[in-house]
Amino acid sequence: MNRKLVFATLLLAGGLTLTLGGIAHADDDDYGEREWGRYGRSVDVPPVANSRYAAECGSCHFAYQPGWLPARSWRQMMGNLGNHFGENAELDAATRDAITGYLVEQAADTQSNRMSRRILASLKADEAPQRISELRFMRREHDEIPARMVEKNPKVGSRSSCQACHTQAAAGIFNEHGVNIPGFGRFED
Ligand code: HEC
Ligand code: HEC
User: Fold this and answer.
1) Residue 50: CB partners within 8 Å, gap ≥ 6?
2) Burial of 45 from C-beta contacts in 10 A (0-12 / 13-18 / 19+)
3) Could you identify the atom of ligand 1 that is nearest to the CA of residue 103?
4) Residue pair 125/71 in contact by the 8 Å Cβ criterion
5) CB-ligand 2 contact for 103 (6 Å cutoff)
6) Ligand minimally distant from the alpha carbon of residue 48
7) Residues 174 and 137: beta-carbon distance below 8 Å
């Protein structure tokens, strides 16, 4: 290539970059709708943002986001930690109260995301479910996944182990793109 050609090529490339940059920028301008869409689609529940909760309630299993259950469910669970699904998960009173406060503050009743609203709407006012995995909505989402991929899969073990299959569970993202069932990969229904 002679010098003139190199220069012309550079100019052309620069122009293209500017044009593409312009398009991307124009796209960002109507971000109101797009950001909302992107947020609503990808982040199903706000991720856990409380280190005490993460440490105490994430030691035996995934630290479930508070937005999966209504406040009345969390209150009932936190009032009965001595018999927590057959385990003793008792905490000192100050820690228990602080964690209860966090859960109630971020419970499904307080969230505007689609997932929390759907769960709440599916419950009767006096229902206080204790298992996220057994909410009607969750059972519907998972009932086609056979036991060999879950209960009989030593790398999963239970439908309560959200993070075993949802690789972005800790970030609050549960869509199909993040699903990777250990030993099976993507789930095709
Ligand atoms: C000593 C271990 C232990 C600790 C600590 C613990 N849990 Fe659990 N938790 C369990 C077990 C065991 C289950 C039942 C899991 C299963 O059936 O696979 C469970 C289940 C749950 C479930 C229902 C999961 C589902 O199926 O949807 C929730 C919600 C839950 N725990 C919340 C908490 C909270 C909140 C804390 C902190 C106060 C906590 N856990 C601390 C052992 C523990
Ligand atoms: C055995 C693997 C596995 C486990 C364990 C599991 N899931 Fe799923 N989950 C899936 C698969 C597969 C789908 C279906 C994805 C699809 O629609 O193709 C799904 C779907 C979902 C959806 C619907 C996503 C959407 O965009 O419609 C939510 C929400 C969800 N799971 C939450 C959870 C939560 C919360 C837990 C734990 C309490 C959990 N899952 C445990 C595999 C799993």
Assistant:
1) 99, 102
2) buried
3) 35
4) no
5) no
6) 1
7) no
